[in-house]
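Co-fold these.
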Amino acid sequence: DTGVSQDPRHKITKRGQNVTFRCDPISEHNRLYWYRQTLGQGPEFLTYFQNEAQLEKSRLLSDRFSAERPKGSFSTLEIQRTEQGDSAMYLCASSHSHTEAFFGQGTRLTVV
Amino acid sequence: QKEVEQNSGPLSVPEGAIASLNCTYSDRVSQSFFWYRQYSGKSPELIMSIYSNGDKEDGRFTAQLNKASQYVSLLIRDSQPSDSATYLCAVNGWNGGSQGNLIFGKGTKLSVKP
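Predicted complex below.
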């Protein structure tokens, strides 16, 4: 499978716990994006990487959120001290520079 | 604040009709424009990209771009019930001299009635 892969697909966690999501992009893509989407809204940009460099972060990305792409391949998104407002679909996408971006299936987070 | 605006709908068209979806964007230097289709509970799926003014056709889909008016549209000909979904417009922002993140509109919900 050469598409974008996200893991896990679903995560239920208790408020206050930390969670980590993984994204494996399409292998030749140098850009990797993280988005968050809630019901009835479009995807909201969180951050993106070009290779291993994190080039832009949204103001939505509070200090509880951190993302890494250490070797320019897979990426992780960690949320510390989760809150109920963090419940959303977390989407990862990859592209070659500014061309078409392709999404993974997403990780649905529920904070109880 | 870079923005992408879409009418949230719902847009309802009969089967076989043309569905017209519209999008405006605020960042004048944007150069890459995309339409995604999203079924309920699924992730967005890329259906069209357009980079220069004019029309681009792919099967039943036509994307139209007018950079002077900062306007992008998507036409779906011979609409089918399977086209019922939310359509997201996305535009590349500009970040320090190069194209940056993708900015999405909130999407237009399309319903095609049999």
